[in-house]
């Protein structure tokens, strides 16, 4: 079937799993089949290039193969799939131990220094699915930290003292713009929504070794090129929540790369796609059916569904309480702020949650 005639329908992607030395030996309950693992898995990539479609007209194809074929009815009028990677990378992160202290470059730096890796920077957000008591992330530098004090702290293993320690609970969200020094502590299950980039510059890794016994590579020169000293951006999100028509919507953050909100509902809900952009719906909790054009398909936890821009009306019929994250690449940030206000968010909150 020609891609230009691909029938419009929600399409589910299959995850791929990545070993990490800080990962977990069980990914239950999100992935109950992943227990008693021989090696720790740290990440489940839901929209990686190698993820294959499990349903829809592109079933069996990798995302990297299907995306260039998708017409505007799928991608949206404001997003071109030609000569570009799929713009959103969604992951689940399972941290049995703390991650390395690291930083990601922005687009300007990556376009010059990381052409071979795609030339895209990495701004991201985390949504907390589960957290052990007392679990914390370290995001952003404390006041008055300079490059010189940062370098000394690496040398004497006191780097954590220079970072902001932020305890998190399930339902919390963090915004981590490119250039922000950070690490994720032990005891988390997170959903990470980010630019489609895997560029990470490690500055400290707690003297860990990889599976071969070799110390993992650090990237100090590049890291110091991109770390933001002085005023820090991002941090823990103070979201805005509105309830109407049987659904509670929580608006987290919107930036040029993604806009993310949480939907919680126990009864059928309906909505509409935007012709300007596709959407991703990430099932955090609950099962039921997704419905469109007198058709339906079952949904379950840990799934991600791509909603074509031209689909029109669709909805969800849950069997019990459901929690989903909806994310997209916004056509423009002014329209996101206007949408929030139409949903009942105050102008002040809408302005605060839009990161220009």
Q: Can you characterise this structure?
A:
- The protein has helices at 63-66, 72-75, 107-113, 147-155, 220-226, 333-342, 347-353, and strands spanning 11-13, 16-24, 41-45, 88-95, 101-103, 124-131, 136-141, 163-167, 173-176, 182-184, 188-195, 201-204, 235-236, 240-244, 247-254, 259-265, 269-272, 279-285, 288-292, 295-299, 304-307, 313-318, 322-328.
- The chain is mostly beta strands and 356 residues long.
- The chain has 2 domains: 3-74 and 83-236, Jelly Rolls (Sandwich); 240-353, Jelly Rolls (Sandwich), CATH 2.60.120.
- A 7-stranded antiparallel sheet has the order 1-21-18-23-16-15-14, with helices on one face.
- β15 and β16 form a beta hairpin.
- The model has no long low-confidence stretch (mean pLDDT 95).
